[in-house]
Specification:
26% helix, 3 helices, five-stranded mixed beta sheet
Length: 245
C-alpha cells in the first residue's frame, strides 16, 4: 500500500501588513484652523444679534409687566397713579422708605402686589461696575418712572393724592424708561427722573420706554434726543404745566 503524500508545509512565516497611520500635516491643520476661524467670524455678528434681540425682548416684557402693575394700581385707587418715588421720603411705586435698595425692599413698593416677582425690575444687561453700584442709591431696579407723575415734585409728596390721575396723560406719553447707566450712578438716586437726565446705553442703538396706555416701544438714541427737547412732549408731560416741565 502506497502511503499518502504528507501535506506540504508552507515554511514561510506570514507577517501582518504594515498599518499606515493617517495624520494631518501641519499645513492641513493650519488650513482647517483658518477655515474654522473664518466661519466663526461670519457667525459672530448673527449670534450677537440674536443675543441682543433676546435681551431686548426680555426688557420689553419687563416694562410691559411694570405698566400693567401701574394700570392695576390706578384701578384700585380712583384712577390716580402710584407715587414715582421722587425722593426717598414717602411710599411710591418702587419702595417705601426707609426700605429702598435691596431686592426684598421691592415688596414695599405700591405696585408689588400686582407683580410679585423681582426679576421684572432688572434688565439683564444692567451690570454696573463696583464703583457705579456703590454710588447708586437704588440698586434693585434698572428702570425709572417719569417724574411728571408728581409734576416733577410740584405736588405735595405727603398729600393724598400726591399724583395726577392717569387720565391726565396722553396715551403715548412716556411713563417708564431705562435711565442712563453710564455715569457715576447719580441717576439712580431714587425711583424717578426727569427726561433730560438721560437714557440707557445698555442696548445697541437705543433703549426701551413704556407709555401710560401700556404699550412698550424701542426708541433709538436719536429719537430720544429729539423727543426730550419737546416741551411739552412725550417725555415732558406734566399735566400741571403749560410746557410739560
Amino acid at each position: 500500500m502506497v502511503a499518502p503524500n504528507p501535506p506540504v508545509m508552507n515554511s514561510a512565516i506570514s507577517t501582518p501588513k504594515p498599518v499606515h497611520r493617517v495624520a494631518f500635516t501641519l499645513i492641513e491643520l493650519l488650513v482647517t484652523m483658518s477655515i474654522i476661524a473664518v466661519i466663526a467670524a461670519l457667525l459672530m455678528p448673527a449670534l450677537t444679534a440674536v443675543n441682543e434681540s433676546m435681551y431686548r425682548t426680555r426688557c420689553i416684557n419687563n416694562l410691559r409687566t411694570l405698566t400693567r402693575g401701574v394700570a392695576s394700581y390706578t384701578i384700585d385707587h380712583g384712577g390716580y397713579l402710584p407715587y414715582p418715588n421722587w425722593g426717598t421720603s414717602v411710599a411710591g411705586w418702587l419702595y417705601t422708605p426707609p426700605n429702598y435698595n435691596t431686592t426684598a425692599d421691592l415688596q414695599t413698593g405700591q405696585i408689588w402686589p400686582y407683580i410679585s416677582t423681582p426679576d421684572v425690575y432688572r434688565c439683564v444687561l444692567d451690570k454696573p461696575t463696583p464703583d457705579q453700584l456703590t454710588n447708586r442709591a437704588i440698586k434693585n431696579c434698572s428702570y425709572c418712572m417719569n417724574g411728571a407723575v408728581c409734576g416733577y415734585g410740584a405736588l405735595d409728596a405727603n398729600a393724598s393724592p400726591n399724583t395726577y390721575p392717569i387720565s391726565r396723560f396722553p396715551a403715548n406719553s412716556v411713563c417708564f424708561w431705562e435711565q442712563d447707566d453710564g455715569n457715576d450712578g447719580f441717576w439712580f438716586n431714587d425711583g424717578s427722573n426727569q427726561p433730560d437726565e438721560g437714557i440707557s446705553q445698555r442696548h445697541k442703538g437705543g433703549a426701551i420706554v413704556a407709555c401710560f396706555d401700556g404699550h412698550v416701544e424701542w426708541l433709538t438714541w436719536d429719537a430720544y434726543n429729539a423727543e426730550k427737547d419737546l416741551s411739552p412732549g412725550r417725555f415732558w408731560c406734566n399735566p400741571g404745566s403749560a410746557n410739560g416741565h
